[in-house]
Amino acid sequence: MTHSTIPTARLGEHGPEVGVQGLGCMGMSFAYGPTDADASRAALERALELGVTLYDTADAYGAGENEKFLSPFFRAHRDEVVIATKFALAIPPEDPSRRIIRNDAPYIREAVEASLRRLDVDVIDLYYMHRRDVNVPIEDTVGVMAELVREGKVKRLGLSEVTAAELRAAQGVHPIAAVQSEWSLFSRDIEAQVVPAARELGVSLVPYSPLGRGFLTGSFADAATDLTADDFRRQQPRYTGENAAANAALLEPVRTVAEAHGASLGQIALAWVQQRSAVHGLPVIPIPGTSKPGRVEENTAATRIVLSDEELDLLEPISAKVAGDRYADMRFASAGRE
Ligand SMILES: NC(=O)c1ccc[n+]([C@@H]2O[C@H](COP(=O)([O-])OP(=O)(O)OC[C@H]3O[C@@H](n4cnc5c(N)ncnc54)[C@H](OP(=O)(O)O)[C@@H]3O)[C@@H](O)[C@H]2O)c1
Known about the structure:
Blueprint: E1 8-10, E2 17-19, E3 23-24, H1 37-49, E4 54-56, H2 65-76, E5 82-87, E6 89-90, E7 100-101, H3 105-119, E8 124-129, H4 138-150, E9 154-160, H5 164-171, E10 178-182, H6 194-201, E11 204-208, H7 223-226, H8 241-249, H9 252-261, H10 265-280, H11 293-301, H12 309-315
Parallel strand pairs: 3-4, 4-5, 5-8, 8-9, 9-10, 10-11
Antiparallel strand pairs: 1-2, 6-7
Helix pairs in contact: 1-11, 3-4, 5-6, 9-10
The structure holds NADP nicotinamide-adenine-dinucleotide phosphate (NAP).
């Protein structure tokens, strides 16, 4: 396999150009079982060599640990990387295992200072509201975020798991560069309303979990038996038990397409997400997560795969047949608020 650098795409109406595939860094510290710091550092460096410039983290990933882990890499390559982090999932002092959603001004101000400190940089390139607190008007939240832009703490704003109406309201306060939401062969809720709104408003789409948290690669079949006890995917209804068995059968057409391209299942899943850009007419910058340099090579190579109309047709029915929700607690998804 040859490894050339990936093409670029625009992050928001006024740029910057970033590698058309970003890197999700969450699993380097949190959520998906054992971590390997050396491999993760190698993955970060390999990604940069291959033209990946958008790096995704959040204050909630390992309660700040992920931002701290990434800091030396970001500082070493400050002018080459676009740092995206997020606020909104607060840790209640009485129970550190829980998360509560907060979008209020005092919380945001505290969160941005803490992220800047942990990342050890002067400015965050893209600052996302990670989840929506329905008790705070989104105009107020984005108003505070806009103040952070004016104060030079943050360059651009993003929103994660918002509805089309929330995106429109937010855009009325300050330009939004990107919406980050789950988008994959298994999760296509956002295509109905959020994606058309983003296209209309000049907002780029950053699909998270484009590999279905690894399930679409075939690397695990049932989270309950194949993954470690602390792995977050064991809590997700679609990856365990009967649901997982039914969903594994849905990978058959992905396998057929993969064989035709001499590609892996994951590469076809990524090529499909990437091609949403042409299908829906807006910049799409998926952020597959991996902590392994070899997988960075595999995933970035998927940017060169183009699926035919017949192949897209074969993959089209999959998402409607997926058994089980994305989250056990659907308050963490925007879908219920549409
Ligand atoms: N905004 C939000 O609410 C939200 C939610 C979830 C995630 N995110 C962001 O989106 C990023 C990506 O999502 P994600 O990590 O949940 O899911 P994902 O990218 O769909 O899948 C990641 C999983 O797939 C495995 N993997 C990656 N490449 C592979 C390959 N080529 N072959 C086999 N397995 C492979 C990874 O394991 P290895 O590390 O072992 O390779 C990891 O377990 C996260 O890192 C995070 O930054 C955001």
